[in-house]
Write a structure and sequence with these properties.
Elements: E1 8-12, H1 16-28, E2 34-36, H2 38-43, E3 55-58, H3 63-74, E4 83-84, E5 91-92
Antiparallel strand pairs: 1-3, 2-3, 4-5
The structure holds zinc ion.
């Protein structure tokens, strides 16, 4: 009950470099987020147990967009140019494989 249940974990990994990378990516997209367990993982000489992995947390209203950013980035599309959604006209960064607004896939991909 005393826990902050409002936050959603959108990414967790024993690789702190990756976690920091995705956090910076989210912030560059204007998505407020914070890290949990960063110090625990940094002190470990081996892979920490899952519950101690560094985690990226966001407020629930940012969850879908944050997951879309991370999912697109993990598919390695970060070099793609920005594009405009043909469905709703939303301007999207290159790492998005689909519009986070209306779900339409990037054309010509
Ligand atoms: Zn769209």
């Amino acid at each position: 009950m005393g826990r902050d249940a409002k936050e959603k974990v959108v990414y967790a990994s024993p690789n702190f470099v990756l976690v920091a990378h995705f956090r910076a990516l989210l912030e560059s997209e204007g998505i407020p987020c914070r890290l949990r367990n960063e110090f625990l993982a940094g002190a470990a000489g081996e892979l920490p147990p899952t519950e101690c992995w560094p985690e990226i947390c966001v407020e629930p209203r940012w969850e879908a967009q944050a997951l879309a950013v991370i999912d697109a980035a993990r598919r390695g599309a970060t070099d793609a140019p920005p594009w405009t959604c043909p469905g709703c006209g939303e301007r999207l960064e290159g790492q998005f494989g689909a519009c986070w607004q209306c779900g339409k896939e990037r054309p010509g991909g």
